[in-house]
Each structure stands twice: as structure tokens, then as C-alpha cells.
Design goal:
Layout: E1 2-8, H1 13-24, H2 27-30, E2 33-40, H3 47-53, E3 58-60, H4 69-81, E4 85-90, H5 99-104, E5 109-113, H6 125-131, E6 136-143, E7 153-160, H7 167-192
Parallel strand pairs: 1-2, 1-4, 2-3, 4-5
Antiparallel strand pairs: 5-6, 6-7
Helix pairs in contact: 1-7, 6-7
């Protein structure tokens, strides 16, 4: 069985989309894969409640309890490795990871970013796209490297930017596409593992 560990920081809507697709498409049977744990760096992350309601083990490694990014990442690695993951999925995990962490899961660490990479890495992607006069925005699933929001692109979805869009309305449309492409990209990645 290929274990998937999902890291979240907030509502976990992408995590929920992955979990729901895994159940509907019977990943355990067809891909020999399952979401085996959801880990958050924030104790108040709402997505933890969803995961628990689905019977998925959860854990919290509160980044505020650590003096350094390296110490936090070491504790996070220890928790992740308890589940022997074939894949680690960042789903709204709002922490920049150290190169040591990224190297440990190299080739099996993926993320979703709310822009059409390589455009608009980092934060405030929707407002930046609007301010730049872009006609389109979107989301990108990519492999994680030590360089922020870089790495091989696995999937993208495109949405138009409308004249009346605000960062919030654009974000909502992009998020609806994230919920479609992220589960598919995870499934495609797992198929590639054989």
C-alpha cells in the first residue's frame, strides 16, 4: 500500500478534495494507495476536524514551539516518517521548508500553488495577476524543490480574469479548479510509482 501524508495549515479544502476523490475512485483498490495521515503546523487548523471525521489519523507539529525552522522540520520529518509515505502532499501548508526537508522527500513531495507557474511565485498571487493586467490566472501542481514554487509542473488549470474580479473572487474561482486538478495529479503521480 502506498501511503500518502498530507500537510495542511488551515481549512484543508484541497486535502478534503483529495480524500474524497481517493474514496470515490477507490484508490486503495485501484492504485494501492491511501491517505494515511494529515499533519498540521497549526493546532486550530479546521482541516484536522474533517480528517478526524473521515477516520484519518492526525497530528499537530506547532511551528511556534520551535526555535528554528530546522528544529521544526526535524520534528515534522519524525512525524511524517512514522507513516512511511510514498508521497507527501502539501495542501495549503504555509511554511517554507528547509533544503534538508525537501531533499529527504525529493521526488515524492508535491505542492499546489495558486498561479500559473512560473508566474507569480510566493504570496498574493491573485492580486498580483490582476495588477499586472493578466487575462488569465490559475493553479499549478508541481514537484517541490528547494527553490520556492519551482520544480517540475505536473498539472495546471486556467481561469479567466474578469473585469470585475477582486483578489477574493478570483481566488474562489481558482480554488474550485484546484479541487479538480490536485486529486487527479496525485492519482497520476501514484500511477507513475507503479
Amino acid at each position: 500500500m502506498k501511503n500518502i501524508v498530507i500537510l495542511i495549515s488551515g481549512s484543508g479544502s484541497n486535502m478534503a478534495a483529495i480524500v474524497q476523490q481517493a474514496r470515490q475512485a477507490q484508490w486503495a483498490e485501484h492504485l494501492q494507495a491511501r491517505v494515511c495521515a494529515v499533519i498540521s503546523n497549526r493546532p486550530e487548523a479546521q482541516g484536522l476536524d474533517f480528517a478526524r471525521a473521515q477516520g484519518i489519523p492526525t497530528a499537530v507539529i506547532d511551528h511556534k514551539a520551535f526555535d528554528s525552522r530546522e528544529a521544526f522540520d526535524a520534528a515534522l520529518v519524525a512525524e511524517i516518517d512514522r507513516f512511511a509515505p510514498a508521497l507527501v502532499v502539501l495542501a495549503g501548508f504555509m511554511r517554507i521548508l528547509t533544503p534538508v526537508f525537501v531533499a529527504r522527500y525529493s521526488g515524492r513531495l508535491i505542492n499546489i500553488h495558486p498561479s500559473l507557474l512560473p508566474a507569480f511565485t510566493g504570496l498574493h498571487t491573485h492580486q498580483r495577476a490582476i495588477d499586472a493586467g493578466c487575462r488569465f490566472a490559475g493553479a499549478t501542481v508541481h514537484q517541490v524543490t528547494s527553490e520556492l514554487d519551482h520544480g517540475a509542473i505536473l498539472a495546471q488549470a486556467v481561469v479567466p480574469i474578469l473585469a470585475e474580479d477582486t483578489a477574493e473572487t478570483l481566488a474562489a474561482r481558482v480554488l474550485s479548479q484546484e479541487h479538480l486538478i490536485y486529486p487527479r495529479a496525485v492519482a497520476d503521480f501514484l500511477r507513475g510509482l507503479g
